[in-house]
Amino acid sequence: MCGIVGYIGGKQAQQVVVDGLARLEYRGYDSAGLALVVDGKLATAKKAGKLVNLRKVLEEEPPPASTIGLGHTRWATHGAPNDPNAHPHVDCGGRVAVIHNGIIENFAALKAGLLEKGHVFGSETDTEVVAHLLEEEVGAGHELPEAMRRVCRRLEGAYTLVAVDAQDPDVVVGARRNSPLVVGKGDGENFLASDVAAFIEHTRDAVELGQDQVVELRRDGVTVTDYEGRPAEVHEYHVDWDVSAAEKGGYDYFMLKEIAEQPRAVADTLLGRIGSDGRLHLDEMRITDQQLREIDKIIIIACGTSYHAGLIAKYAIEHWAGLPCEVEVASEFRYRDPILTRSTLVIAISQSGESMDTLMAVRHAREQKARVLCICNVNGSTMPRECDGVLYTHAGPEVGVAATKTFLTQLVAVYLIALYIAQVRGTKWGDEVFAMVQLLATMPEKVEKVLETMGPVRELARSLANERSVLFLGRHVGFPVALEGALKLKELAYMHAEGFAAGELKHGPIALIEEGLPVIVVVPPRAREVLHDKIVSNIQEIRARGARTIVIAEEGDDTVVPYSDTLIEVPAVPTLLQPLVATVPLQVFSCELATAKGHDVDQPRNLAKSVTVE
Ligand code: AGP
């Protein structure tokens, strides 16, 4: 939440910062602002609303040229999303400018102390205390890096901070505790940002900052220390995607591009993991085969869409690997007393690797001595560094706030892990694992096939744009698919949407069915006869009560035709893999319906892509 950019070099900082913010807007779009250092003074501009509003301000009143600056795009926590609360925040004398991502938990006490000393505040934010604390430190003669270290030692909570001092045009300083911050190393210029996307057009050489580190960015170098000023170890890496991956590439929305990229994303996530002998090789997981043999229970923790991937993982793990598997919303996990031992494998699923709820659950699990593996899409993010092992999804950058291609690649990752555990523990014969892996390898073309037939789904979505409510039903792995379909519709179309296990319907939710209510039903493959026939009965039950049935079933499934007001066919695949094809129409449906309502599907209201506060 909140996007941060800092720049020092030879280019126009305003341009670099605003372009960087445009690539970080997915992190929050309640307001945007920037500060430049100009001849011993700060030039600041900030505006509530999306970045476009700030751009207008900058066009109307262009700030003076500068080669050092910082910028911020906000997802509001403390204080309404208005102009005064927009970042950057400055001190009383207008000498120091600060931007912030996270929450400073002890801000009230710090603010009270500063008010007593006569500091004047211009916003309701927790961030502003940092500007005034820095004011005191630079006022006492400390250079900005040391001032930042001294201030950070007093802060509690999770935060990333970046600051400039008008009286020192040669340094940008950043600090990191929990919230993400990466350095981009250029030639005679350096960058700081919440995500490499902000500087990818300038450099692909990045430095991942660790916990409780302060970075000093100068034109000719980068110095990282801990909060005591001792040199800190950092991890340098090269970003393996380029600027085109972070652009819309001719699509109206990132989400449309990301939906279309799914066949490639699925293929890339499989790449290099299937040996020529048909065996799976997941050495990068950093968990040994012996350790996997010792596991007696798996717990999956995740949020939102990643949680839905976790629910599907449970079916795959229990079926293939024969291990008990629990799935829990990460924000609940550490507030009960989960029973964890050294033989528990915790799998954290997170696209961003930064969701605070999941990160805290990971830390809790590690404190309880469980082994923790994460499935993550972002190299250089926090979770892979803090877990025992990681399996990266190779979806490429996902900019749309609604997760699409990363969900499909998370599914691929959980299938790979489940099959790998089965291979290692011998719970399935080698040829059974091989056969399933071969089927997995055909999934990119199956997903492609679904995408080619989405015309009627788009038409259907447009016809339902004025509905007030849509229900989603599924059984087995179709149930998490239903939940995911409902989440997509809620977050993009702002409509009432709910997913249910079809078997639960008669236990209450069936009371919601009324004449004409659209109900989308995910039907399992015919091969799972019992499941299949039960859901066909459920379709009849809701239809008898007036529901408008929209049925997603495998191609050639004639049994559902009489009960489907609309039939969406997907390629025939084994039951466990069906979410890979059945989710795609639901993504397209929500995207199209939301677009028909005039919504910006890349930036739905109230949301941010990385939820870095609890
Ligand atoms: C999905 O469309 C959402 N934007 C959201 O539920 C997301 O999946 C969730 O916040 C978890 O994020 P993560 O995977 O980055 O941890």
Explain what you see.
By secondary structure, this protein is of the alpha/beta class. The protein folds into three domains: 3-246, Glutamine Phosphoribosylpyrophosphate, subunit 1, domain 1; 254-441, Rossmann fold; 451-596, Glucose-6-phosphate isomerase like protein, domain 1 (Rossmann fold). The protein contains 19 helices and 24 strands. The strands form four sheets. An eight-stranded antiparallel sheet has the order 3-2-4-1-10-9-11-14, with helices on one face. The longest helix has 21 residues, at 405-425. The radius of gyration is 25 Å and the shape is globular. The N and C termini lie close together (11 Å). Bound molecules: 2-deoxy-2-amino glucitol-6-phosphate (AGP). The site of 2-deoxy-2-amino glucitol-6-phosphate has 16 residues, from helix 9. 2-deoxy-2-amino glucitol-6-phosphate is lined by residues 303-306, 350-352, 355, 358, 401-403, 491, 609-611.
